[in-house]
Batch of 4 targets.
Target 1
Amino acid sequence: MGFVTEGVDRSELRQIVAGLSAGVVLVEPDQRIAWANDAALQMHGAASLNELGDTVAEYRHRFGLRYRNNRAPERYPIERLAAGERFEDVIVEVARTDRPEIAFVHAARSIVIADAAGAPTCLALVLRDVTPQFEAEERFEKTFAANPAPAVICRLSDLRHVKVNIGFLEMTGYTRDAVVGRSVTRSTCWPAPATATSRSRG
């Protein structure tokens, strides 16, 4: 029962955390998984704490994680937490190894509370389920790419091209590399705006 400081009632802490919409997993300094609220279990497709695994090592065995670029992290967020690392909003896809069809996208951050000597006494992994957001982005990406009409997306802050579809490239004859990242005002894909001199000559 060593994951909270002396004098803190563990049952009260659980009651506070239990009703949060965010998922919370409490980990002991010895890397045992001590507790998780219902939201955290749901975000793992789990019905009980046992399905997460008794330890951080078992968790890694039961769940496969990867970043959005399909690269597997060297250390899972829960492993970084167990090492006492503080981090914010690490986005990972999480899938059960026994049931790969059960998958979620988590935004994870750590809460590390230490005693006066600097030793971790409370380790909490806080999770947000951002699956709907990324599913919507994937649907948009597919629709944008498949649209035969020319389409381009520009960033408002600096008017640089962020995305272009096949229709746009076929219309202009440019390659994607020649367009993406370039400013609209400096891009040769668009006609230069008429100057006062050229308008007067017209």
Target 2
Amino acid sequence: MKDSNLEIKILKNKIYDETSSIFIHNLKKLIQLEGTQKKLASKIGVSEDLLSKYKSGDAFPAIETILYICKLYNITIDEFLNIPLTSSYFEDMLYDDTGFEDIFKQDYFCYFFVTNSGKKSGIHESNLRITKKNCIFRIYIKGEVIKEFKGTYKISDNLVFFNLYSREYGYAYITMIKPSLNKSKYIGGIAMLSLPSDANSKPCCQKIIISSSKINRELSFDILNNFLCFKSERGSFGNIKISRYEDEKVYDFITNLNEETKL
């Protein structure tokens, strides 16, 4: 009998350790989502000191606290205590309640290089429409839509990925740095675009500027060209990437542009 009780106790301790580890992981994701421990503590109705004990594993919340957290963030107890969740998972749950448009506007202007070999210096203007579940990417020439791609998007911990398709032109992809939740609206930034080029529909990968406001391509050509060009101090490089610093520079440019427009 004693051996049986000991085995049960060992099993219970193992379950507790595993559950506690996953709970701490998910709690840290919630802290990231809310921005600070103080904000999360206030939101779930506990002291900041007690939340710190939850985070360190020195204490485990009462069942009513766990139930409240799950109801607040629209997740099940099984998910919260048994699955290490990502930040984007919690954000997706919030978007279901508040609407994705709380972070993004519906329509954005986009700018990228013309890929036709005869017009290397040209910059396309396009439109990216984002709804709660879907997206549409349209490329214009002289105000006329020449290509249209439709699809969906997926949010990860650090990125937003737009998966687009056209029956006539095939697939296109846009990968952008996920906007900070501390910003009330996404103003714009720079992303990576992959789509069939105009020349023989060969694959092409380049930068694309996403802006909440229309940019005069003639007046701002040098600035746009500087943002869109890939640069390297070396003669060759193994990969191409977009940094958050680069994204913030474009964000600042668009913000200043918006301020100038208001004047």
Target 3
Amino acid sequence: MAEKLFSSADKKAIVDAIKSAEVATSGEIQVHIESRCKGDVLDRAVDVFDKLKMYQTKDRNGVLFYLAVEDKKFAILGDAGINKVVPENFWEQIKEQMTIQFKAGKFTEGLIEGIKSAGNQLGAHFPYQGDSDINELPDEISFGS
């Protein structure tokens, strides 16, 4: 179910948004989509964050967008480095923007909007480091059961 929610064009647009957001930053953004989330959505997002080894970025500046589509749950999780510098309630504000899109059935647009907002903050606090900057995490969407 999770993979079927997004067409090939939608998936490409989301990956392109990730790549575009990461051009101006050393930060890393990942999207993980599952059908169901049995427990607390933030607990599950933490599990996925760990499984994807997002804590292994040099500056601890990874951001995970986690969606459980059938349960209509989602979370945004930033690592310690980015959480120290973003404004209070920053992730909640992005979630509110995304929720408006999601409620209108615009999942791709909502994700892209959230990715752009996160990318702007990452770029402001963790600018691209030139030749020394490597893409530490994959840009592709990961899918769970």
Target 4
Amino acid sequence: MRFRPLAPRTLRWRPVEGEGLEHLDLRPVTGGIMASAAVIGERGGVPYGARYLILCDESWRVVEFGVSGTDGRGLLMRSPEPGRWLDSQNRPLPAFDGCLDIDLAATPFTNTLPIRRLGLGPDQGTVELAMVYVPFDSLEPLVDRQRYTALRDGELYRYEAADRSFTADLPLDADGLVLDYPGLFRRV
């Protein structure tokens, strides 16, 4: 087992530059995992405040997530079956077919989702994934391709944008949660 079974946790991350804070409550629930967080910060000099809720099944596959900004904007997406997404009105979102994971721009937590779901070891090489990526400035999701590689089993994973525009080696704790996201976030 690469990571220990999840127990209820409360975590906080702070951005490396600028102001901000994320407060995350993570806990097992019947049939899966629930993550609930409040995030404040700024991106490109523009401040934001938001809450998010992510529900995963027992294998860490996202089945539903919602993001709501303090400005009243919001996004809700559900995945009733792997790789298929619906909007808040249960309308299909075919643009996201094949995406199993999500990446919320303002948190290092969503890196844990594919890492835990895949259970990658160093002998398995690099895996490329299509993600539902949600920038917090617009809350308009788009598909983003990302790569993950286990460098040290259960301890260090490489995240890489598929276009090679960004790479980060992510040290993890025993639950697979990011300790330090070089240049972006640090666990408080």
